[in-house]
Amino acid sequence: MTVGAPVNARPIAVRRPGLDVLRGVAILLVLLRHSWPDTFSGAGIVGVVVFFALSGYLITGVLKRDIDRTGRISYGRFYAHRAFRLLPALVLMIVVFVVVGLSTGIFGSISTILGSAFSGLFYVTDLPLPIPTAGPINPLWTLALEEQFYLVWPVLLLIAVRRNRVGFMLVTVFVLFEAACTASALYFAGDLDKIYALPTSWAAAMVIGAAAYQYRDQLDHLLSGRARKVALGTASIVVLVALSALPDAKHVPWFYFVGGPLIAALAIGLAFSVKGWSAVPNYLEPLRLLGVISYAVYLWNVLIQETLEATAPELAIWLTIPTTLGVAIVSWWTVERLGRRWRSSFDRVHRSDQKSASPLAA
Question: What is the predicted pLDDT for the residue at 212?
Fold first, then answer.
């Protein structure tokens, strides 16, 4: 902590261009899978697992910094920040989905559309509930998995830190998730669609990301030196690209309990190779910009694709990705920008309230 800094002061969030490039790679893989599923069969799950690993790493960092500063976690602030970041764009997308669905009927019956909206808004798309969901809402299972994970992760992390058992907790949770994933993948080997979106299938990737933050100093020491980082980054990219081309990956049992952790580990290796970048080479700038808007790209891609396929099928293959990027840019500068402003206002009020409540305030 900087000498003289107030106890409740928090560092200003700064984007890391290297990690934005990695986000750009991940969302590009998802786009390729959605547009050309026969060619890039494994690309989608590679992309989302990369996001899971990054999310585990970054959110654990947020929580650990809170614990290190105050000895506790401000749950209200943590979940408020998540809401300000995620809900404005999500709500807009779901409103558009409902309007288009009800006015055209292309997404199914009224009950399907309303059930889909409920599942998306309340982050339960990954659970085997008797609620019908339409295609544009199905990708939200990844967001549901993350938010469910972060309902329990802060509590587990705080308990582990206070008992000085973080390493034990990480290993235990990873083993439990891997055991559940392995058992379900083997049991449903003939019908893996039943477990594809379950929380237990991919949550181990977020634990790997969390462990990477916990042991970041050791990893940085192992990767000290440009040659090591270049070698690890190159090897990670090669293997991730190879896994992205794996035929029918999500219908291969071992891809769940072996491929998921492997992708997460490679993503972390790549992240540690680039996270220290202060700028990116010019040829990577498009990927960095794509990473910045990756959340909205993920939200809108399937909705736009299915709408175009139903209304202009001959143009859908050419218009889906450009239209998705355009809508995502608009989302970033409108509703997501509004969410960032709300978050800043919330933080100002929160700090003011803390100061007023302090017995040292005069």
Answer: 97
Residue 264 maps to a domain = yes
* Residue written as token pair 């979106």: 197
> Is 47:270 a contact under the CB 8 Å cutoff?
no
Do the beta carbons of residue 287 and residue 28 sit within 8 Å? yes
Q: How far apart are CA 79 and CA 60, in angstroms?
A: 13
Cα-based torsion angle of the residue sequence 348, 350, 352, 356 in order, rounded to the nearest 10 degrees: 180
The reply to whether 355 falls in a domain is no
Residue 8 in any domain: the answer is no
What the block records as the tokens of 169 is 């907790």
DSSP 261: H
Chain segment 124-142, per-residue pLDDT in tens: 999 999 998 999 999 999 9
Q: How far is residue 253's CA from residue 222's CA, in Å, rounded to a whole number?
A: 33
What letter would DSSP give residue 63? H
Q: Please, are residues 134 and 112 in contact by the beta-carbon 8 Å criterion?
A: yes
Half-sphere exposure of 289 (CA within 13 A, CB side): 10
In angstroms, rounded to a whole number, what is the distance separating the alpha carbons of residues 47 and 27? 6
Distance CA 98, CA 308 (A): 16
Residue 37 lies in a domain: yes
Structural domain range at position 220: 19-345
- Tell me the pTM: 0.91
Closest to 243 measured CA to CA, from 44, 53, 71: 44
Query: What token pair was written down for 244?
Result: 């992205």
* Number of domains into which the chain is organized: 1
Q: What does each C-alpha distance from 73 to 10, 63, 162 come to in angstroms?
A: 13, 7, 12
Q: What residues contact 157, with CB distance under 8 A and at least 6 apart?
A: 60, 63, 64, 67, 73, 166, 169, 210
